What does this fold into?
Amino acid sequence: MKHSLLHNLHTELGASFEETAGWNMPAHYGDVASEHRAVRQAVGIADLSHRGKIRVTGDDRVKWLQSLISNDILSLKPGQGLYSSLLTHKGKMLTYFRLYLQSDAIMVEDAGEIGETTFQALRKFLLYGTKAKMENGAESWGLLLVSGPKATQVIQSAFGVDVASLTPVNFVTAQVGGTQALVIRTEETGETDIEILLPIAGLSTAWSTLREAGAKFGIKPIGARALEALRMEAGIPKAGPDLNEEVVPPEAGLEGKAFSLSKGCYPGQEVVARMDTYGSVRRHLVGLVLKDSVVPAKGAKLFSGDREVGWISSAVRSPQLNQVIAFGFPLRDFSKPGTELTVEFEGARHEATVHALPFYTKS
It folds into this structure.
């Protein structure tokens, strides 16, 4: 089991740990509701160093990635980023990530916890003679998330960097802990989300500096349980549970976000284009609100009457709604908000109502 460089600091803060994609990472620091509240009302800090991170260099880096991924990176300028995926030839999502264009490299960050899936998938396409090089940054790069209404103030106070006007998924660079860091506006919780992506040598300094600068703003360390509730309330699907080889991007509502219909050929492009042309999206990602307090597991079946119509991909108890919420993929005829369905879990059926996403929007 891998550990973050900050593992001992998390332990000192009272973290309880859980396994995530082969890493032992903080689940919570004793009070999930308090962590959730900190992000919604003030500011929280989380260690996402277990996320997949790749650095692509070489003269062919843009041309090579452009030929493989589902989105169009040719128009990006340094300091800009976008979402994309790598699809199978049947259009299914092998992986889902954000790319950040630098003057001398492209950084890739998984939008979810899927281990080395992205690195291994891309590596298969790195053919002899291609002037591109991939560095697996899983353990050589660290990643921190600062989230909440006070996030930009904490970043300004900690690093002297103004990120208030940054739009997702763009970034600025800053000197942090003696290293060159990317300070990125991302989308993780529905609040203002700022990530610091940096070489591992600067991670401990970055964490300490942010906690010191954030003390006057009420900063709290945040674990995976609170982050999961926050991201689901905000209606944000992620690689792994929601976006995987069972799903084609249009089914997940990723039009205009993670795939291009005009860039030309890439694996799976014909399938995605055909769905768009003929309107043949078979199922849709939806929100669900469960009547009972049970939290169904990933893969729990959705029913309309006695007909199986889909599955649950993620579920959590929402502190914001004080109810169990879920993401599901029902057939399109059962995806309209207000549709009554049932979830089969552990031999019982539980009532659920389709809910428009997101569940929560920042006021």
The chain is about 20% helix and 35% strand. The CA atoms of residues 154 and 215 lie 9 Å apart.
